Amino acid sequence: MKKIITIVGARPQIIKSSAISRAISNSFKNELTEIIVHTGQHYDENMSSVFFDEMKIPQPNYNLNVGSGSHGNQTARMLEGLEEIFLSEKPDAVLVYGDTNSTIAGALAATKIFIPVIHVEAGLRSYNKAMPEEINRILTDSVANYLFVTEQSGLDHLKREGVPDEKVFFTGNVMIDSLVRYQEKAKSSTILEELGLQASNPENRREVSRLYETDYIVMTMHRPANVDTESGFKAILELIELSTAKTKVVFPIHPRTRSNMAKFGLEDTLTQNKNLILTEPLGYLEFIQLMTHAKAILTDSGGIQEETTYLGIPCLTFRDSTERPITVTMGTNQLLADLNPKITFAALEEILAGHHKKGQIPPLWDGHAAERIAENLFNLFSK
Q1: Percent of the chain with pLDDT over 90
Q2: pLDDT digits (tens, 9 = 90+) for 5-20
Q3: Calpha distance 356→347 (Å, rounded)
Q4: Which among 64, 21, 73 is positioned nearest to 42, based on CA atoms?
């Protein structure tokens, strides 16, 4: 039996890993065994362990508990802890997801001691090296032995960078697997009632020609460019003021965002707005339910661009580039070069008036990416 160590550390990685862990267990449990290592990059209860419980993911075999820190400090502690585990467990391969510090730490620790690296969500490029995630993507792909790709742009980038075709597999988007699996179960969530929101109940958003009459939008913000400066935060406040004059705004606050909100002394301003609903980070099922019934999503997240494209929900992303261009060219995503409140609100008003892209679901975003990945892992490592 071949042994694969899976590295997770952040919320999206936990969600993605649940699908692949299930696919391995369902089809190849006698051929492949999986060891899960949680780096502890996201250590908040609402950003980590709640997902293991909610999605019935096997608890990690190891947890490094690295917590917060600078990029160098956090990655160094991960490297030290992961190398020790790899030397002890002697895996046949190490599987990493996405573009976080946990990703690059897992890839570097493995490749330095000659363990094959598998990168899920490979080939994505924003071409913005001011983002730490872009550095992590490029470096991880450069050392990966096998690269699993979510969209056509990933194939194009890897070919342009000279990665041999035999190392690259177009498997689709495993994030969508979890969304497909839990979409029905999410309907049992009471989050809309708990937040005092009225919601229509579209069975399939894509089958209707008009925007459903719900009474809120959802905002998520966590990237340093938006929340680490007082000027960035004041732009968010102005956007909230403009938006709440038209509709309710639900704002699940990332721990980083909440910390900076307190640092800049802006808590009172936010809590006094009657049409703004501030929440702690939500569980996966709660957030699916919240997204499904929203008029629009305002975000700087990567994964939400994909989820909204699948769900057919308008998405405004505060970035001047995206590593997920198919969400723009085929999906419902619209990029806004910066967090300009008035420009953003004008775009939001268009959406609220029903003038927005309907979009399409990209190829292989079909709920079966994890099965394709598991089959490739079996073919690559079972011999």
Answers
A1: 70
A2: 999 998 889 999 999 9
A3: 9
A4: 64
For the chain, the three-class secondary structure string (H helix, E strand, C coil) is CEEEEEEECCHHHHHHHHHHHHHHHHHHCCCEEEEEEECCCCCCHHHCHHHHHHCCCCCCCEECCCCCCCHHHHHHHHHHHHHHHHHHHCCCEEEEECCCHHHHHHHHHHHHCCCCEEEEEECCCCCCCCCHHHHHHHHHHHHCCEEEECCHHHHHHHHHCCCCHHHEEECCCHHHHHHHHHHHHHCCCCHHHHCCCCCCCCCCHHHCCCCCCCCEEEEECCCHHHHCCHHHHHHHHHHHHHHHCCCEEEEECCHHHHHHHHHCCCHHHHHCCCCEEEECCCCHHHHHHHHHCCCCEEECCCHHHHHHHHHCCCEEECCCCCCCCHHHHCCCEEECCCCCHHHHHHHHHHHHCCCCCCCCCCCCCCCCHHHHHHHHHHHHHCC
Q: CA-to-CA distance for 236 and 232, rounded, in angstroms? A: 6
What are the structural domains of the chain?
2-172+365-381 (3.40.50.2000), 189-352 (3.40.50.2000)
What pLDDT does 55 receive? 79
Q: Which residues are known catalytic residues? A: 222
Per residue in 282-305, pLDDT (tens digit) is: 989 999 999 999 999 999 888 999
Give 327-372 pLDDT, tens digit per residue: 999 999 999 987 889 999 999 999 999 999 999 999 999 999 999 9
